[in-house]
Design goal:
There is one protein chain. By secondary structure, the protein is α/β, with parallel strands linked by helices. Helices cover 37% and strands 10% of the residues. The protein contains twelve helices and eight strands. The protein has helices at 10-21, 45-53, 71-75, 82-94, 106-111, 113-129, 177-194, 219-232, 248-257, 269-280, 301-310, 358-369, and strands at residues 59-63, 99-103, 135-140, 203-207, 238-239, 261-264, 287-291, 314-318. The chain has an eight-stranded parallel beta sheet with strand order 5-4-3-2-1-8-7-6, covered by helices on one side. The radius of gyration is 19 Å and the shape is globular.
């Protein structure tokens, strides 16, 4: 996702961590339907670390089928593409990947609730066949702020994520109680259906809250999402990743209320290591980097993946297969004629399974398989 954060001095990291340590009461949201007492607490550090120790090192990619421009096209009945999913997760399995971060969308659920859940189950069947445990994302504040079900737009040539859509964005007003009730039903329906499913790694409740200029306006929905998740109390952990250090209120709340810590960093190895040392390791919880790898910004497999492995941090890069999302193009560097950039921004494979760079794929496989 496009990053709007600025790098801050190290003392800000310390301030952020101290703020989290001193805020020992998880945020509570009264939905009007249940009492606060029905919400479970944040997992203890001991429980979180025991969970992580039982899992293999999580390595994978943020994934959307190459045939889909956005989450709706991926999940709607007419364009759900299990053939491509099977083929593309096979590419991931071949290089030792064992997880995928996958975005859902409430409109696909609202349009066809049972069908949507059946398609999620089908995805899980295919992923399990390839020994991949995905993590699913509910809400996000990036890219186009309105959308509608049905036929999705065609990609705009050379423009990164030209058709990706927010959820809920401006399609739903979170100040509307009936809309919030619908979102609550959505989250709880999915979590309840799959709460004991061992094929799922974790639930990422909100991607990059505060992006697109929302700032603290995203905090109420973030708190609600965690409240709904705690009420369902799935076997899998709940999280929402830190991504922009200037969003101090959101960051403090996310770090204090996530069972395991997830984060995004598209910087080079020096900045990424500073994040790890300055505040992430101090949480004493499992760490999973759920977005990294933007080649033209200095975040590459060669310099970041070894750091993550050495620190026992899960590694989920943006992009698996080049497709309609156009994520081979950089965020702010469109190519008007749609020609292939000299250096891919994201993604690893072409549609036919040919690697963008053979040596890069060999490097990933070496670290994931210890060969």
């Amino acid at each position: 996702m496009k990053k709007i954060f600025r790098q801050l001095p190290v003392f800000i990291f310390a301030t952020l961590f101290i703020s989290c340590k001193n805020n020992n009461t998880p945020g509570k949201v009264n939905t009007g339907q249940v009492t606060e007492k029905t919400e479970r607490e944040v997992w203890s550090k001991e429980k979180a670390n025991a969970w992580y120790a039982a899992e293999p090192w999580p390595v994978g990619a943020d994934y959307i089928t190459s045939s889909a421009i956005n989450q709706l096209e991926m999940w709607q009945a007419e364009t759900f593409d299990p053939v491509s999913i099977d083929k593309e997760l096979g590419y991931a399995e071949e290089i030792g990947m064992n997880t995928m971060r996958v975005y859902l969308h409430h409109l696909a659920w609202k349009l066809d609730k049972e069908g949507f859940k059946n398609r999620v189950n089908k995805f899980l069947e295919i992923a399990d066949k390839h020994q991949i445990k995905p993590l699913f994302v509910f809400f996000y504040d990036c890219w186009n702020d309105t959308c509608q079900p049905g036929k999705q737009p065609e990609p705009k040539p050379g423009i990164h994520n030209s058709g990706w859509v927010q959820d809920p964005g401006k399609t739903v007003s979170t100040s509307d109680s009936s809309a919030m009730a619908m979102l609550e039903e959505y989250v709880k329906d999915i979590l309840t259906t799959f709460k004991n499913d061992k094929r799922i790694l974790l639930w990422d409740l909100y991607n990059e809250p505060g992006n697109s200029g929302y700032g603290n306006k995203s905090l109420p929905l973030l708190k609600s999402a965690f409240s709904w998740g705690r009420q369902v109390n799935p076997d899998q952990p709940l999280s929402a990743g830190v991504w922009a250090l200037h969003l101090t209120d959101l960051n403090a709340w996310q770090l204090e209320n996530s069972d395991v810590i997830t984060y995004h960093n598209y910087s080079d190895e020096k900045v990424h290591q500073k994040w790890i040392d300055s505040f992430l390791l101090k949480t004493e919880r499992p760490l999973i980097c759920t977005e990294y790898m933007a080649r033209t910004r200095g975040s590459k497999f060669e310099n970041i993946l070894p750091i993550l492995k050495a620190n026992k941090i899960g590694a989920v890069n943006w992009g698996l297969v080049s497709g309609k999302s156009n994520t081979i193009y950089a965020w702010d560097t469109p190519i008007a004629n749609g020609g292939e950039p000299s250096v891919w921004f994201h993604d690893i494979f072409r549609k036919d399974g040919t690697p963008y760079k053979k040596e890069e794929v060999a490097f990933i496989k070496k670290l994931t398989t210890n060969k």
